[in-house]
């Protein structure tokens, strides 16, 4: 058996244990994509599901910091690489775990990045998962293309944007990218949508408001919800504490609804496929 065929069979074996595969994308950087991906994975785990989080952003691997696990390392045993256990329900892998220190730069060309992503999929022993969440780098380049080609079946893509026109222009490109590759668009999330002053209660739309929903309507894709701009959310990311763990906050409430919308889309689509296949 040649190496390519063997690797393809290994990927199929690994991915056969994963029920649902979700990509989190953004057309541009700085919109909070990794924060959304990490908190989505964490929230799914909190709901009693087994979840894997793959950090495919090779040049900006921020998942370890956001989840407060920068000091952890994956284990290498017979049978593969074992991802870092974040909680009993959540596992994660990132190139950030493998760097000498947090300031190290990944100075790689495309083929090396593709090999790393290939290893994350084929060599990591993910086990049985209900959901795999893939945090992709900004844009529509090599990394998202490689994930789609290697995984074969992706349940859908989530597009994260902020309300201003420049971010929305790039989010449209991400939607079109998904359509070209025949990946269902789960929907658009409008992040940093309105800032509520903790002292006076006045809401200020720093990055405008409603643009994500408008883009979703224009493109004919679901609008998953908006996440307000909150200093506590920023502090949570910097301290390695997922904001979905906060007891009471408008951000958590907004995000919980988004998670419900994501699950409803994926599970409804699964039900439709079962119906088309005669309930098998």
Spatial gap, N to C terminus: 32 Å
Number of discrete domains: 1
Mean pLDDT metric: 89
Main sheet makeup: 9 strands, mixed
State the helical fraction: 40-55%
Coarse structural class: alpha/beta
Write a brief structural summary.
The chain is of the alpha/beta class and 280 residues long.
Structure description:
With 280 residues, the chain is an alpha/beta fold. It has a single domain, classed as P-loop containing nucleotide triphosphate hydrolases (Rossmann fold, 3-Layer(aba) Sandwich), CATH 3.40.50.300. The chain has nine helices and eleven strands. The strands form two sheets. Strands 1, 2, 5, 6, 7, 8, 9, 10 and 11 form a nine-stranded mixed beta sheet that branches. Strand 5 (84-87) and strand 6 (90-94) form a beta hairpin. Helix 4 runs parallel beside helix 5 and helix 6 runs parallel beside helix 7 (211-219). The radius of gyration is 18 Å and the shape is globular.
